[in-house]
Every structure is written in structure tokens, then in C-alpha cells.
Amino acid sequence: MKNKFIKIYLPSFVLAAMMVSCGGDKGNSLDSELGDPTLMVNSKKQAKMLDELIQSIPSPVEMNTVIKSTGAAFNANIMHKTASAKKYTTNYQQAFNVGVYTADMGYINVYDKTMYSISCITAVKQLSDAIQVGQFFDFEALQRLSKNSNNVDSLQYISINSFNKMDAYLRSQNRGELSVLIVSGAWLEGLHIATQTMKSKSNDELREKIGEQKIILESLLKVLKMCDKIEYVKNVLTKYEKLNDLFSKVKIEYIQGEPVTKIVDGQMVIEDSSTSEIKMTDDQLAEITALVESVRTDLLK
What we know:
Blueprint: E1 2-4, H1 29-34, H2 44-56, H3 60-69, H4 91-110, H5 114-130, H6 139-145, H7 152-172, H8 176-200, H9 204-226, H10 231-247, E2 251-255, E3 260-264, E4 267-271, E5 275-279, H11 282-299
């Protein structure tokens, strides 16, 4: 199936989470013992790679909108249980699961299942407080806005501002590996929700979105490798590399098109008319789905 050239967007909940350096986590003595911050990369090259990762992360709103458009019913069972938030005791676990729960928030909001919003926001607050960034979230506003699906844009705006402040703080504290883990958790949970939806409601567009994750994963691995002196990050990296082995079999063919010039709101806009085609067999999709579920189960223990 051919589709418009793969467009890459920045997710609202993880907007600023990548522009950081990977250092040791000073907020947790146990975590500090796992990695030597003097071994971390901190250079212009790293900043450039992180910037490229930003460009390669798709919008969770876009992915979840495709999920909903399949006609699949909302399934609360595929989300992470919010009661589990309290069992995460290291800063690395907490950061990873901030990402997981924010991905679940996107799923909840697209389906307008407000009954689940408060508990999910509470889990994010609990974990973000634990890694000392909770002060940067306007949780009262998030709770109020989450009660109405028409407020998605406002939710995104507040989330962006919150993460900009959080990111600046983490960088100032040399705790950038936590931001990388937040992104990693959000990516895995989004892929999990997509693959589980495909099991119940097959859809060509969603299938392509899953195949496109090959590109995102390649970028994510580069950033994780910058922080792989930390044992927890190394564990995430090892599991994601196994996923990458499966995604490497997925083929993405690009068909170059001529740029198209249009006038939009009185301004000239150049659109890319190139297309892409995802080639992923049923067996490959099944293998990816199974491994995503296995990796997620291991990392959310």
C-alpha cells in the first residue's frame, strides 16, 4: 500500500525530553551506583543526534487517531495498570514509566474515556514527583482539561510547557538519561497499543504506522547507546536491539515525487509529493507484536 511520504512529528508529552546530555542520576543513590557519569557522551555530535531523534518521533495524537479510526473498541486492558506506579523505586524505572503512562494518556484522550484520565494523571504525578520534576506539571489544569476531548490542543500546550521546564531542569542537574528513558517508555507503550489493536482490528493504515516505527527505533537506539554505561539503560537498549532485529526485515520503499506549490492562507507552501510503501508480512507483524509484548512485560516488572 502506498501512502504519502512518511511525515514525522513531535509528540506533545515528550517534546523537550530529548535535548539533554546523558549523565549520572544524582537523585537516587542506588541508580548512581549503576553508572559512571564520567563515561557519558556530552558533545555537539550528541546534541545533533538528539535533535534528529526529535524529528523522528511521531505524534501520539496521530497514531492514536489512526487507532481509533480502525473502529477498534477502547481496551483499558492493554494499558499499563496505574496501581503499578508505586512499585517503581529507582529513578530510572520511574522515568521510563512516566513515558509509558503519558502514552496511555494519549490513548485515553483520543477515545474520550475520562474515567481513566484522573488515575493516569495521578500515576504520572507520583512518578514525576519521585524524579523531582513534578513541580513543572500543572496537574490541576491537566485533570480539568482531560474531562473533555475538545481540549486536546490545550492538553498538548500545557504538556509542552511542562516538559520544556522539566528538560531545562534535568539538563542543569546533569540527569539527561531520565529524559531519554521517558521517550523510550512512551515509544514502547505507543507501539504496544498499536500492535495490540491490530490483533483485534486489522487496518492497512495502522499497519503502515507500525512499520514506520523501524525508522524511529533506529534513531532511538543511537541515543540509548550514548547512555549505555548505566545498567538500566543498557538493559533497555539490549531489548530494543532485539526489536530492531525484527524491524530490520521490514522494507520501506521511497518513491520520489516533485514538490507541489500551494497557496495556503495567502502564503506559499511547498508540499512533498513523495510516497512511501511499507512492506511487512503477516509473519513479521506477528513476530514484532509478540516481542513488543514480551519486552514490555519485562521492563514493566
